[in-house]
Structures are given as structure tokens and as C-alpha cells.
């Protein structure tokens, strides 16, 4: 039986691999947390150099660029959702029933929240 940490690491690795292969750039850092039947994933450094330049100017046009970037990234995740859900299913050992994604163009951070069909069977961490 896998531990909670092993499942979290496997989901984080799967999402990083998806980002690299599907988006063309993987995150600098990924951290996943399993809480009952939900996985919360925090991604740092997800923007490409071109995307960072696009949103870094600080004017009104950059606000529009940031919104367009968020829309583009959202559509890309939607386009690759089936592949992402397959990777998460393999990593967690349980299919997903819902997936939410958001990105902050100003910080280059992303979050993904995945609801699984059930709580994965694993050894949970002891409460501190």
C-alpha cells in the first residue's frame, strides 16, 4: 500500500509531465496535497519567458494581456483535460470527477484542484 506522500508525489510528477509535454514548459516547483478525495496542486514558475514579458509592462494593455493569458491557459487545460485526468487516475489510483485550474500571470503560479471519485487507499500521515 502506498503512502499519502507517495500518491501526492506521483500526482505532482504527473501534472509536471503534462505541463511539460502539453504546454511546452514544466513548472519550476510542484507541490501536491491529498485531503480526503481532493488533491490540491500548487505550481510555481509556469510561465514561458515570452508570457512573462507579455504581462510584465504594468499598463492597462498588460491587464488585458494577463486576462488573455489566463483564458488561453484555461482553454489549453480544457483541451488536454482527458489526458490530464488519465495521468491523475494512474498516479492516484482513482479516477477524477472534477478538475479546476487557475493561473496568476503576475506571479507565475498556478493551482489545480482535482476531486477524485473516492479517497485513495493509502497510509495517511499521522496528525501532528
Keywords:
128 residues, 4 strands, 4-stranded antiparallel β-sheet, single chain, alpha+beta
The structural class is alpha+beta
Rg, Cα atoms, Å:
16 Å
- How are the strands ordered across the major sheet? 1-2-4-3
Uncertain regions spanning at least 5 consecutive residues: none
| Tally of separate domains | 1
Give the number of helices: 4
Helix share of residues? 40-55%
Mean pLDDT comes to 89
- Euclidean distance between termini CA atoms: 22 Å
> Main beta sheet, described?
4 strands, antiparallel
* Quaternary organization: single chain
Give an overview in words.
It is a single chain. The chain is an alpha+beta fold. The protein has one domain. The protein is 46% helix and 24% strand. The protein contains 4 helices and 4 strands. It has helices spanning 4-23, 49-55, 60-79, 81-92, and strands spanning 29-35, 38-44, 96-104, 109-116. The chain is elongated, with a radius of gyration of 16 Å. The chain starts with a helix and ends in a 12-residue tail after the last strand.
Amino acid at each position: 500500500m502506498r503512502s499519502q506522500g507517495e500518491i501526492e508525489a506521483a500526482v505532482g510528477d504527473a501534472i509536471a509531465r503534462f505541463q511539460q509535454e502539453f504546454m511546452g514548459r514544466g513548472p519550476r516547483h510542484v507541490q501536491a496535497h491529498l485531503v480526503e478525495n481532493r488533491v490540491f496542486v500548487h505550481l510555481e514558475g509556469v510561465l514561458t519567458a515570452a508570457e512573462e514579458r507579455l504581462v510584465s509592462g504594468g499598463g492597462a494593455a498588460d491587464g488585458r494581456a494577463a486576462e488573455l493569458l489566463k483564458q488561453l491557459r484555461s482553454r489549453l487545460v480544457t483541451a488536454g483535460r482527458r489526458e490530464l485526468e488519465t495521468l491523475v487516475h494512474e498516479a492516484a489510483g482513482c479516477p477524477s470527477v472534477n478538475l479546476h485550474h487557475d493561473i496568476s500571470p503576475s506571479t507565475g503560479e498556478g493551482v489545480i484542484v482535482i476531486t477524485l471519485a473516492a479517497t485513495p487507499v493509502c497510509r495517511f500521515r499521522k496528525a501532528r
